[in-house]
Amino acid sequence: MRRIALVFAFILFCFDGLYSQETDGISAIMHFAGVSSEEELDEHFVEQLERLLSRPLRINQQSLSMIKESGLFTHYQIVSLEDYRLRHGDVMSLTELAALDGFGQEFTRRIAPFISLESTGYPVNRHNCRVSQELNLRGGIRYNEFLYNNYFLKYHIEAGERIAAHFALAKSSGSTKPDSYSGHIVWYFKRRSAFITIGDFNARFGQGVAMWNGLTLSGTSRPSGYLRRSTSLSPSSSYTGAYSFRGICAEATMSRLRISTMAAVSQFDPSISSYGMMPAVNVSLLCRNGKVGITHFADFRLKDTRCNIPDMKTSFDIGFTIKGTDIFAEAAYDWVSASAASVAGAVFPVGEDLRLASMLRLYPPEYNPSYSGAARSLTKCSNEYSMSLSGEFTCGEWMKVNGTEGFGSSMRRMSGFISLDGAYLPVAKDDSMKSHQLKALAEVKMYLSPSLSLKVRFSERYRSWDTPFRTDMRLDLSYFTKIHTLNFRLNALKCNGYGLLSYIEYGLKIRSFYAYIRQGVFRIDDWDDRIYAYERDAPGSFNVPAFYGRGLWTAATGCWKFARWGRAYFRAALTTYPFMKEQKSGKAELKMQLKIDI
Q1: Quick one: pLDDT band at residue 13, thresholds 50, 70, 90?
Q2: What is the C-alpha to C-alpha distance for residues 89 and 195, in angstroms, rounded to an integer?
Q3: How many Å apart are CA 367 and CA 325, to the nearest integer?
Q4: Is residue 470 helix, strand or coil?
Q5: What single-letter DSSP state applies at residue 89?
Q6: How far apart are CA 194 and CA 252, in angstroms?
Q7: For the ranges 94-103, 118-127, 523-532, which has the lowest average pLDDT?
Q8: Which run of H or E residues covers position 280?
Q9: Which of 262, 335, 444, 467 is the right S-S partner for 312, CB 3.0 to 4.6 Å?
Q10: pLDDT in tens, 41-54
Q11: For 127-162, what is each residue's pLDDT tens digit?
């Protein structure tokens, strides 16, 4: 046994060169999204960026349409990038990219994991016919009073920038057959900035007041998360297609004019003779510093011989970048309820070490938020008049962080932010004449050494209904080297009662393998005091369970890159409740996933 232990220690601590080249994906996604914790992320946004982590966007070779679809850049940044490519050729380094108008070092550091500077050196060859394929297979079993099994399959193929196709199926219910399907085929016109998609697609216009499919964060924290980067129309590559539109869409850009049209199925139920179709159109005028757009859609529902329109909206949006300041606004009119909603804000730098943001949101209670996805603090773009202020800073000397290389590997010793949000609800949540809520959030992260970081997060919420105050304090301590990671979290919450959650996690990363094992404990006696904690999982699975009760949980996740073209992921988790007075059954999960790139 002693000899085995010595061999194991030799492998772990002597071969520092065998570290994983795979980025800590969730940290990169959080940094780009401008959120302070994993629990604030949107599941479908994570799935979109995880795909870019595995297949980075080739900004030197791919067309403006595909760069826009990524959702990484504002219109101003896209125009700035294309102008630079035409004048000076390909961008050959991240330092060169950071010097472009509208980018800067901080933004370039945020997008670095999602892009590639791959270059052919010949602009005429940017439209290539290289075929790439990706296959994901996932299956697992889960026990929570009853035994469930599930499986997922996703296949994606691209032929350069001419045609792409996607197909996925999923089974998560008690039946043996798949219960959801997703797919699309998209054709890109080589000589024109245009495409046509048939199947599942995303429609995300303006700031999301009128139309923005997918889930939306319930608040704003960092200034970098205030501005929503519209992708207009883009193919959807999710496993289930639950939040995407299904139908046909097309988009074309002619000089400074971009026209997007779609016709989506909004309802289809032959058993009750109910059908729905939703046409929509967006016209955007593009210029060097931003864009102005108009969107209109109507949801037509036909049941038997009667036709009604439950939702119809028209919106106007603007977005400009002026001397480093991002200004954005959108106003939408709901024709059915005869009400208007709007959002407006700005993100502006104050020197190199301070960035500020503000946002005003006016969502009347009559407004129908069925297809909206704008920023909010309480509701889904309805029954809320609110304002947000936020600022983030960096200070201290620059420090080379262990386990990182190249651009962005040096960080300021201290960074943080503070966010304030106030909301007034015209329709009260209780019997009073009015309801209001105030939220404050602050976070400070310090690098105590090149291998040790400390993050402290504090939030306070006051509202005029139910339990007035909710206080949340969280501490994260992380130790990291090229191959080892050790994370500790302590979370304390006071609302109806007290909630406590803590875990310790060890991670090992070598060239072709990484694994994490986590052991946690929680004591939360009231459901309103529940604490959400992000759990590592395979790509395509965003796992944020709510912990409630008194118990323990253990989770292990890992990935083995067995070839240049293949990866295998696993996850095993067990939750038990040994400290509960009343008997409560535990939970168990086992999951395997295979990803093949051709």
Answers
A1: very low
A2: 25
A3: 30
A4: strand
A5: -
A6: 4
A7: 118-127
A8: strand 274-286
A9: 335
A10: 777 777 778 888 87
A11: 456 788 889 898 888 877 677 788 889 999 988 778
In the chain, what is the greatest distance between 2 CA atoms, to the nearest angstrom?
81
Contact between residue 21 and residue 4 where contact means Cβ atoms under 8 Å apart: no
Phi, psi (degrees; rounded to nearest 5) at 582: -90, 150
Distances (CA, A) of 597 to 22, 154, 315, 500, 558: 15, 12, 41, 42, 18
- Cβ atoms of 252 and 262 within 8 Å: the answer is no
Share of residues in the chain with pLDDT > 90 (%): 46
DSSP-assigned letter for residue 98: H
Average pLDDT over residues 511-522: 94
Query: Using 50, 70 and 90 to split pLDDT, how confident is the model at 9?
Result: very low
User: Mind giving me the DSSP string for 183-243?
Assistant: EEEEEEETTTEEEEEEEEEEEE-TTSSS-B-S---S---SGGGTS----EEEE---SS-TT
Q: Is pLDDT of 22 > 70?
A: no
Please tell me the predicted confidence (pLDDT) of residue 219: 62
CA dist 516 → 400, 566, 576 (Å): 24, 20, 20
What Å distances lie between residue 437 and 140, 378, 424, 461, 463, CA to CA?
Answer: 41, 9, 7, 7, 4
Q: Which residue has the tokens 């404050």?
A: 440
Between CA 534 and CA 541, with CA 538 as vertex, the angle to 5 degrees is 60
CB 328 within 8 A of CB 319: yes
Please check whether residue 317 is in contact with residue 333, taking contact to mean a CB–CB distance below 8 angstroms. no
% of the chain residues with pLDDT over 70: 91
CB-based burial label for 574 (10 Å; 0-12, 13-18, 19+): middle
Identify the three-state secondary structure at position 338.
coil
Distances (CA, A) of 48 to 175, 238, 260, 358, 542: 28, 8, 21, 27, 11
Cα–Cα dist 463/470, whole Å: 9
pLDDT of 555 over the 60 cut: yes
3-state DSSP of 525-558: CCHHHCEECCECCCCCCCECCEECEEEEEEEEEE
Question: Both tokens of residue 241?
Answer: 């297609």
Given the structure tokens 């086992």, which residue do they identify?
A: 590
| pLDDT of the residue at 218 | 57
Q: Which residues contact 124 (CB under 8 A, 6 or more apart)?
A: none
Number of C-beta neighbours around residue 217 at 10 A: 19
Helices (H), 314-387: none
Those residues whose C-beta lies under 8 Å from the C-beta of residue 86, and which sit 6 or more positions away, are: none
Amino acid (1-letter code) at residue 326: D
Would the CA dihedral through 425, 426, 431, 436 be positive or negative? positive
State the Cα–Cα distance between residues 264 and 249, nearest whole angstrom.
8
Number of residues that make up the chain: 598
Q: Which long-range contacts (CB under 8 A, 24 or more apart) does 95-101 make?
A: 95/407, 97/59, 98/407, 101/76
Say if residues 535 and 543 touch (Cβ distance below 8 Å).
yes
The model's pLDDT over 241-268, given as tens digits with 9 standing for 90+, comes to 778 899 999 999 888 899 999 999 988 8
User: pLDDT higher for 454 or 76?
Assistant: 454
Distance separating alpha carbons of residues 483 and 13, to the nearest angstrom: 8
The 3-state DSSP class for residue 119 equals coil
Q: Which residue is associated with the tokens 């890992």?
A: 558
- According to DSSP, residue 598 is labeled -
